[in-house]
Amino acid sequence: MTSGRAVDPAGSRCWAPQSAPIAGIPRRAWLAQMLALSAAGCARDRGPGHSRRSTVTVAVNLTDALDPNGSLNSPIALAFLPLLTLSDTGELVGRLAERWEHSPDYREWTYYLRPGVRWHDGTPVTAQDVKFSLELKAHPKVLTLGSDAFESITVVNHRTVRVRQRHFEEYSWDDVLYPKHLLEHLDPANFWGWDFWKHPVGNGPYRFVHLLPKTMMEFEANPDYYRGKPGIERVVVKFAGPTALADLRAGNVDAVNWIPPAWIPDLAGDARFRIYYSDIAAPSNYELIFWQHRDPLFQDPRVRRAMTLAIDRRELLAVMNMPHDAPLTDGPVGRWTPGDPRRGTPADLLPHDPAQARALLEAAGWHGRNGDRIREREGRSFRFTALASGPGHQKVAVYVQAQLRRVGVDMAVQMQDGVTGRIRRGEFQAAFDVVQTGRLFNMMGLKYGPNGLGYQSARVTELVHRQDVAVDPDAVERIFGELKEVFREDVPVTYLFPWIGASVAHWRLRGLHAPFRTELLRHMDELWLEDAR
């Protein structure tokens, strides 16, 4: 067995900004009409004899209560512990699990729970809670995991549980776990509507205090937290929705846990705030152009390659307000390669090369002879329609439209709801959509469902099925390396850029830094507030 030891890094408590902060304005009264709270102090508890009352208000893109699916960047992260999480350097560290082991094939994990951890009602946390939670998530009426996710879940003793998964990475060690003694008698069919989510009893750094429906949730620091009482004593989660930006600027909230890219230029120019990009080390969602391979326009791989070469993807990052160093790729991103040094390097990535794009189009028989400079082949002009949905995709599509026009290709943009479904059904010529690797394989008919793209490759099919059952990290990385090579040659889709999530916080909220310490609610117990200057 390969084991892991718990690490409790303190480096994030001494975070230094990338640039010297500029003095911010004093915080204004917040939620005055809704809350009888006081933000009286703004300092991190930094040791014995130094403690000031502190409150942080975070706006979230939710409408009410917790997300029971267990996202650790939702309010549930304040109250509940996962088994493991990532350190500020991207290494596995223990939370509920004090230590852990895994079998050589990575399918069996044994977790040794930390002693003395209790649910907020005083009940000890045991291995039975772990077993109950995982089985609940795989229940046919819940299915936040696959119903066949586990071969077995064995309680070895009250502090040890062994999990044998049927397929690789069916569950995540950083998903939160639930109290069996409070939930075992509830009907799983009503899981999403359980009243428990409105007054949760967790085991993490913050205890639930109050819910004002559709408005906010309030949490207080847990004095019995195994890592010690958090320095920020009170956290208010405001269900802000479209008012989040105005609340941030007015001083009604200290941070927003997710911001759309359109906000970034304005906020980046405001000395009061700092922006933190998440997922930049290992993005999972990429903006793609899907090509319809049944359409004669896109059957030649030279044409699809030319389309990619015509687009300046680094410039597109700037257009979309994404970080300039976001990792670009030409093929699927593997499960175990967050630090793959080959991703995005000049040798690995198809370059922006309009001259080569024109040469490839010429070689494929598409010649630019007309006055409008739109290429033709056998009397047909190179014109097609691309589907896009929403302002973000539309902005990408308009940029690509201008880039393709420079090499003699005319792409019209059609705004269309339900683009993903149209792609799956093959009802498109080209389409813009954001997908994860697994969903891409499904949309290509490589795992489930019809092949909406019409792309056929025995090699890709073989590699996808191999990675689906592979468990050794090195083997998985090799398979994805081969997949990227095939994608780079065939270009079944064009990878444009990763959608990198971003959060924003007032400069006084310290302890955040990229790439592994950016989720506000996940790491609240490791953050602190500086005094105003």
Query: What ranges have pLDDT less than 50 throughout 5 or more consecutive residues?
Result: 5-52, 336-347
Principal-axes geometry comes out as globular
Strand order of the largest sheet: 9-10-11-2-12-21-13
So how many helices?
Answer: 13
Number of domains: 2
At the fourth level of CATH, the homologous superfamily of the largest domain is Periplasmic binding protein-like II
CATH fold assignment of the largest domain: D-Maltodextrin-Binding Protein, domain 2
Please state the oligomeric state of the protein chains shown: single chain
The biggest sheet, with number of strands, parallel, antiparallel or mixed sense and barrel status, is: 7 strands, mixed
Radius of gyration, in angstroms, nearest whole number: 25 Å
The helix-and-strand class reads alpha+beta
DSSP E strands, number: 23
Query: In percent terms, what proportion of residues is strand?
Result: 15-25%
Q: Regarding CATH, which class of the largest domain?
A: Alpha Beta
